[in-house]
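To whoever is on call:

I kicked off a structure prediction for a single chain this morning and the downstream step that reads the tokens threw a length-mismatch warning. I double-checked the sequence; it's 146 residues and nothing unusual in it as far as I can see. Pasting both halves so you can look.
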Amino acid sequence: MHEGVPSNYTPFLESDGYIGLSGPYYWAKEPSGLVVYGFQSDARHANPNGVLHGAAITTFVDTFLGHAVVAATGRPCATVALNTQFVAGIPTGGWISGRATVRKLTRTLAFLDAEVSAQEVLLLTASAIFRVFEDRPAQNRSAVQP
């Protein structure tokens, strides 16, 4: 476990490729049943102004929204659309948390909303559409079953 990561968070199994460069990312289930996501930001996540880069937040939200779709459906998925609204900036070095809400699932599409925060500061809101594939089960499904 990395420094700054709350003890109740489990790392994503996906650690290769772009996710590996951007993360590691984590998830936890709250007592209410709500799944929350997070990552410890550091200097590599900064923009030239020393603030958490919008791309770092966007990568995080896209990744955890996909995680939420796989957890809800047990099937692989891909991003169709991701609309983000940057609400505030924050220096790097803190714990970044996210929450996903699955608004609607159809046979082939998932519609979701998300929020990303640091401490009590709302950083980003997002809405997304994911394509849900039927032809094969998600790999490592147990890793994303919150």
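Update from on-call: the warning came from a stale cache, not from the record. Cleared it. Sanity check on the structure: Residues 10-135 form a domain with the Thiol Ester Dehydrase; Chain A fold (CATH 3.10.129.10).
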